[in-house]
Write a structure and sequence with these properties.
- The protein is α/β, with parallel strands linked by helices and 221 residues long.
- It has a single domain, classed as Rossmann fold, CATH 3.40.50.720.
- The protein is 45% helix and 13% strand.
- It is built from seven helices and six strands, in the order βαβαβαβαβαααβ.
- It has a six-stranded parallel sheet with strand order 2-1-3-4-5-6, with helices on both faces.
- β4, α4 and β5 form a beta-alpha-beta unit.
- The termini are far apart.
């Protein structure tokens, strides 16, 4: 019987690559739209999970937003939405699904974090904070569920060739970014998806509580 994976933010970028990869490996992929699953609404999240007719074996908390704002110019309504999407939604989904995984003695959860959880740039105070928080949550959740064969990790991508990267950086800035990366290029979404897939698969039998930076060497120079 095939396993079921729930992926948030699967309409584009890393999430879309994940959905394609898991599907190619025989998973039943749940990739709800915003209309089906509103991550800004705890009620919507609860209703969606309660309406599921099959157990979720793998949860990929991928959806995220990154509106830039310098301190002193933060629009707090947008900041609350950022925290709700990047932090609270993964927490609520984990809180609802991890206990059920524990009952079945199997589960994999991967939270998509960011290099900006460990390093930062101007304008990213709220985004960096939300991703640092998800790293901390990942560690504690992993401790609580490891004995039940529910392994929980985070992946922190660097610069990836996605719409979000292009929104926050001009083509000229992207060329500069590439030249400053030890690997001299952006990651492709499919490369990040491969790492996520390993952590979410049965091949991963021992790695838990980790935040793995996949950034082409950005954070080490």
């Amino acid at each position: 019987m095939s396993k079921t994976v729930l992926i948030t933010g699967a309409s584009r970028g890393i999430g879309k690559s994940c959905a394609e990869l898991f599907s190619a490996h025989g998973f039943c992929v749940l990739a709800p739209s915003r209309q089906e699953l509103d991550l800004l609404s705890p009620k919507s999240i609860n209703d969606y999970v309660n309406a599921l007719t099959q157990p979720v074996d793998v949860l990929i908390n991928n959806a995220g937003v990154n509106p830039l704002a310098h301190i002193g110019e933060i629009e707090f309504e947008k900041a609350h939405q950022l925290i709700d999407t990047n932090f609270w939604a993964p927490v609520i989904l984990t809180d609802l699904l991890a206990p059920k995984m524990k009952e079945r003695c199997y589960g994999r959860i991967v939270n998509v974090s960011s290099i900006w959880s460990g390093v930062t740039k101007a304008g990213r105070s709220m985004y960096s904070s939300s991703k640092a928080a998800i790293n901390a949550f990942t560690r504690t959740a992993a401790v609580e569920y490891a004995a039940s064969n529910v392994l929980i990790n985070a992946v922190a991508p660097g610069y990836v060739n996605t719409e979000l990267t292009k929104i926050n950086n001009t083509p000229e800035q992207i060329e500069v970014i590439k030249s400053n990366l030890p690997i001299n290029r952006l990651a492709e979404p499919s490369e990040i998806a491969e790492l996520i897939f390993f952590l979410a698969s049965e091949k991963n039998s021992f790695v838990t509580g980790q935040t793995i930076f996949a950034d082409g060497g950005y954070s080490i120079v």
